[in-house]
Amino acid sequence: MDNNLQKKRDLDFWSLWNLSFGFFGVQIAYSLQSANISRIFSTLGADPHNLSYFWILPPLMGMIVQPFVGILSDKTWTRFGRRIPYLFVGAFFSIIVMSLLPNAGSFNFTIAGAMVFGLIALMFLDTSINMAMQPFKMLVGDMVNEKQKGLAYSIQSFLVNAGSLLGYLFPIIFTWIGIKNVAATGVVPDTVIYSFYGGAIILVICVLYTIWKVKEMPPKEYAEFHGIEKQEAEKPKENFLQLLKNAPKVFWTVGLVQFFSWAAFMYMWTYTNGGIAENIWNTTDPKSAEYQTAGNWVGVVFAIQALGSVIWAIVIPRFKSYKLAYIVSLLLGAAGFISTIFIHDQYLLFISYLLIGCAWSAMLSLPFTILTNALSGKNMGAYLGLFNGTICLPQIVAASLGGLIYKYVVGESSIYMLLVAGILLIIGAFSVFAIKEKEIIE
After folding, report:
1. In the chain, where are the structural domains located?
2. Mean pLDDT confidence for 387-395
3. Fold of domain 20-228+241-441
4. Most buried of 63, 131, 347, 439, CB within 10 angstroms?
5. Phi–psi pair at 127, nearest 5 degrees
6. What backbone torsions phi and psi does residue 78 show, to the nearest 5 degrees?
7. How far apart are CA 314 and CA 311, in angstroms?
8. Model pTM?
9. For residue 115, pLDDT beyond 70
């Protein structure tokens, strides 16, 4: 097949959809984790001063797992594909751990024992989610031409946010249908436990659909599609350090923006529950019914954020440059974070989180569109795995510093941690100027 024709081949809409559909299920698992980890550990008895430290494990596991998944899958060729085997294994273990984590307080452990069990379960959950998540980013890079990558990642962004929407709403939906939203001291409410069970079932269905519908390219076709010469493909693979040394400049400049953006969202995930309980329900007591009600409302506002992200994903392609779209999106998100400190009505928070959704939409689509257009297919998986470090490292740094900022900078106020998040997004927006747009869109 002619190489130029192969490069220009377009996929129909449903083929692009199928490449990312499984991400819907994976993201439900991720959103359940994001919206409920602080709630779970607070319920188990965690000190608010130490809450951010529980968030170090998820990005740390992602930083370790995703580069290895990328590099190993670059070298993997099986009858089922090169990325899909890792998706299957990651999803399988995610389902098991999703059934265990919310039950950490139900096994008659001591408080310390429940914490340890919860941490171990969290570590395995995030490891498996990362293993299941990364293949979807790689499949688009592998199988979609440069012209369609923006559309493909927009579809992926839509499915991610649709999964988030459902995952965030699960606890309050179960509350509405009569499932108990309070439990004995140290025990996670049934609404949260059943939410994780429901997410696990949907994850099974979505992953099986992906395995059934997506057929990856065999090695020869892949090499032709990406214009990889035989002798180039047979060269010894580079190690992590060599890959980073040879990374395109866009890898580092987009990574700078990622640093501030993901640090901001780490504080959102960690402190929204406490901030809403503090500012709207006037409580900081995790044992109170008001605190658990605030926990349900976190799912609602996070769902509003996902809805805002879906809407904004339609707007982003209308911008004439990636940089302008990126800057505007992050500034809108910053305005959303900062506005939360002035709001004492639970419904007015919808405005704040719609704006935050604009930043989230840009973070899900623009970095990967920008990066994959600057990469050859030879080390696609490896670079996308390494690029995950620009997502995980800022979360680790933010989580490590969160307790100190909470105690010494914002006066032990969760809602003011969201102000910190807004400031970080403003810095991220100005960092976009470091990206060379010409390099991105050519």
Report:
1. 20-228+241-441
2. 84
3. Growth Hormone; Chain: A; (1.20.1250)
4. 131
5. -60, -50
6. -130, 175
7. 6
8. 0.74
9. yes
